[in-house]
Design goal:
CATH superfamily: NADP-dependent oxidoreductase domain
Strand content: 5-15%
Strand order of the largest sheet: 3-4-5-6-7-8-9-10
Radius of gyration: 20 Å
Number of strands: 10
Number of helices: 13
Largest sheet: 8 strands, parallel, barrel
Length: about 350
């Protein structure tokens, strides 16, 4: 395993972060694993040297935190792991069940700690940017949570760069703890965060952790998987021809290398400048091993062109732009991939 300091903080995390959205209860979504199915995956990740574990209160409506918390309690020493959880999406049908108000944040951290059976989380993260709550209210509450000892650091996820700038400005003005981590969606089929968000994070000292490196399963070239058959977000975010062409390019590079398309897609993410850690939501220990192999997979210039050539700009993917994708056209292949395409025609 390789390790990196997260942004300008003193916190060291593994370059692979165990994503746990697929752990909890299948009553929430059909592709979710229960506790017995999840434990071998967590154990394998820990044995491989992973010390970074990502959760959210929203996963399996809280059951995810309960399940992963019990597994970690059996398998790991608390001081040796970095546990992050996210807050914001509705946890019930009552008023103030979600969002980033002071009330919900203080209720949320206590509820997460109860479910996790932990005294603190290492990073407490905003799941998105709450446009209905003043930034000052949110960040003051998070600062109090850190000062109370219930979280060691704070983080953010999935927003526009200008929204993160508002957060950083408020923290600077009031002397509050600043976020140390930005968790964002980033993969071969979605690269918009390279334009402003990732350079801004580098400038401001935030580490970047990446989720969905396989584009919600699209880049595995396995359209028949339970996730791809039942997760409508996959089609909504990656249902255009450009995304399918990108997946085909990943498969071509993988075929010539003799490895899986997943390994190629993950290697591309890990090779991008500014990426500190990559989330891995594996369905088995074997799937996790492709990410381990990707750590040492270096893609050459010709392979990178094949992987990059189909990408064109698209709408930012966040809570405010769902369903509004722009048409995209591919560039022509080069080198050995020209012949491969001609042979396949």
């Amino acid at each position: 395993m390789k390790y990196v300091r997260l942004g300008q903080s003193g916190l060291t995390v593994s370059r692979l972060c165990l994503g746990t959205m697929n752990m909890g209860t299948p009553r929430w979504k059909p592709w979710i694993f229960d506790e017995a199915q999840s434990e071998p995956i967590v154990r394998h990740a820990l044995e491989a040297g992973v010390n970074f574990i990502d959760l959210a209160d929203f996963y399996s409506a809280g059951v995810g935190e309960e399940v992963v918390g019990r597994i970690l309690g059996r398998l790991a020493r608390r001081e040796e792991i970095v546990v992050t959880t996210k807050v914001g999406y509705d946890m019930g049908s009552y008023r103030n069940a979600g969002g980033h108000s002071r009330k919900h944040l203080l209720d949320g951290i206590d509820a997460s700690l109860r479910r996790l059976a932990m005294d603190y989380v290492d990073i407490y993260m905003l799941h998105y940017f709450d446009t209905a709550t003043p930034v000052e209210e949110t960040m003051a509450a998070l600062d109090d949570i850190v000062r109370s000892g219930k979280a060691r650091y704070i983080g953010v996820s999935t927003m526009y760069t200008w929204q993160l700038a508002k957060i950083m400005q408020a923290c600077e003005q009031h002397g509050w703890h600043k976020p140390i981590n930005m968790q964002l969606q980033f993969n071969l089929a979605y690269r918009e965060e390279e334009r402003e968000m990732m350079p801004y994070c580098a400038d401001q000292g935030l580490g970047v952790s990446v989720f969905s490196p396989l584009a919600r399963g699209l880049l595995t070239s396995d359209a028949s998987s339970t996730r791809n058959q039942t997760d409508f977000f996959t089609s909504q975010m990656y249902g255009d021809s450009a995304s399918r062409d990108i997946a085909a390019s990943a498969a071509r590079v993988a075929k010539l290398r003799g490895v899986s398309a997943a390994q190629v897609a993950q290697a591309w993410v890990l090779q991008r400048e500014g990426v500190a850690s990559m989330l891995v939501g594996a369905d088995s220990p074997g799937q996790f091993d492709s990410a381990l192999a990707a750590l040492d997979t270096r893609l050459d210039a010709e392979e990178l062109h094949e992987l990059d050539r189909n990408y064109t700009p698209c709408d930012v993917i966040n809570d405010y732009t769902a369903g509004r994708r722009i048409a995209r056209e591919a560039r022509s292949p080069q080198g050995q991939f020209i012949q491969q395409l001609e042979d396949a025609a």
